[in-house]
Write a structure and sequence with these properties.
By secondary structure, the chain is an alpha/beta fold. The chain has helices spanning about 10-20, 55-70, 135, 150-160, 180-190, 285-305; strands at about 5, 25-30, 45, 55, 75, 80-85, 90-95, 100, 105, 110-115, 130, 145-150, 165-170, 195, 200-205, 210-215, 220-225, 230-235, 235-240, 270. The longest helix has 22 residues, at about 285-305. The structure holds NADP nicotinamide-adenine-dinucleotide phosphate (NAP).
Amino acid sequence: MFKTIIIGAGPSGLSAGIFLARDKIPVLIIEKFAVGGNMLLTEKIENYPGFPNGITGYELAKNMEEQFLKFGGKIKEGDVNGIELKDNKKIVKIKNGEILECDVLIIATGSSRKKLGVKGEEEFTGKGVSYCAICDGPFYKEKEVAVVGGGDSALEEAIHLTKFAKTVYLIHRRDNFRAKKYLQDEVMKNEKIKILFSKTIKEIKGKETVEKIVVEDLKQNKIEELNIRGIFISVGFKPNTDFLSIDIKKDEEGFIIVNEKMETNIPGIFACGDVIKKQLYQVITACSEGIIAGYFAEKYLDSIF
Ligand code: NAP
């Protein structure tokens, strides 16, 4: 019996776990994929205080995991597919049939990459269509690739891909980026990156793997084909809240609504990190929300025992 269960081992879940485990509260983190969450999609994190030379997402994730385990926290692999409420208890159902019970639940399930929704995307996923430049970049040495999107992630991915690819087409639907200025400056001065503004992808084509994309020029109303071997789709994230079978308040996009204590509308259920509705999605803000969730989760436990 764990007093607290945290779903998700990204930076917010691990931070909440570190806070609670350090205070000797039995805490279990359930993780579906890999410990680290979306931190693992980031090659280098440069604005996390304490690391003047930056730190890789992988390294930071490993450090947080070690810190959590050192304080006695436990991590379990599992795909949570339902939550139920029984009196004051929270019942967590895992896909393999296991059922766990806790007093406090912290939802830290983060978010996943959005799909573009064009013809060929589904068919060529893993065969030239990718959602992670860090994971798949090395497959494209000296090849032509495209990145779709105009936010921080798209520009970071484009920059990362220039380490491998011959040319990186950065395709954005508007004629200015929403990404941070320093990233814009970097892509502008990188000779391997060709910026294509006001263009959208209509279709991804190929035989066994991706060979070309059909691109529409929105200003000139023109359709053209571009020969590429890989396309990295980076058009934002959607919250991982589909598994929530109880009535937790969310916004229209599915992000969980919390107050400044990271409390949801259900007593004893907290949420933190990229799964919540907020203004700034960064590793450091996720950690901070995790600590706040941990602190108020502990206060909640004090109030019921
Ligand atoms: P984002 O900021 O939501 O940007 C998504 C981009 O994709 C936008 O440029 C958007 O275009 C475009 N887009 C959305 N739907 C599209 C569609 N159907 N077709 C074509 N383009 C489409 O997402 P993100 O870049 O993944 O970043 C998510 C959050 O994480 C942000 O808050 C970001 O600041 C943060 N983040 C920070 C860093 C960092 O600080 N280094 C790194 C990565 C992520 P429009 O601009 O036209 O809407």
